[in-house]
Design a protein that fits this description.
This protein is an all-alpha fold. It is built from 6 helices and no strands. The radius of gyration is 17 Å and the shape is globular.
């Protein structure tokens, strides 16, 4: 049970980590890696894809060190980070940016709001002035608005 709680805590915590990393690192000192993601024609592979490796390191270390030292909470925490990474790939790369043509249409007000929020983030092509840095968290009024419009 404790391990499951560590898994869930890591997954939820990663939404905040992703938001802060996006706002303060990707749109800050690591803009040189993130910039191509905000270009009109980013291409299939981007420098931005290196963030996958950057975020995988804490997951891998938590799992590996937890297994070496027999700390199941660390292993669970690492798998929670990895699960968020998989979610991020599915939502950001497949659903939002359509890197592979899956999940093109949805009637869900929540998923429409997620897509709209990200579209608003990409309205700004430069380092400054962007908003909406998170991935999964969407205010309830946005979801209600999508339900009304849908």
């Amino acid at each position: 049970m404790i391990s499951f709680l560590f898994f869930i805590a890591a997954y939820i915590w990663m939404e905040g980590v992703a938001w802060a990393a996006h706002k303060y690192l990707m749109h800050g000192p690591l803009w040189f890696l993130h910039k191509d993601h905000h270009s009109k024609d980013p291409g299939f592979f981007e420098k931005n894809d290196y963030f996958f490796l950057i975020f995988a390191i804490p997951s891998w270390l938590s799992i590996m060190l937890g297994m070496i030292y027999g700390v199941s909470a660390s292993v669970s925490f690492g798998f929670g980070i990895a699960a968020y990474g998989l979610t991020y790939f599915l939502v950001h790369e497949l659903f939002i940016h359509q890197r592979f043509r899956f999940f093109q249409n949805t009637e869900s007000p929540y998923w429409k709001a997620v897509r709209l929020k990200h579209k608003m983030h990409h309205k700004t092509l430069g380092k400054e002035g962007a908003e909406h840095f998170g991935l999964l968290w969407v205010p309830l009024d946005w979801i209600r608005n999508q339900k009304i419009q849908g």
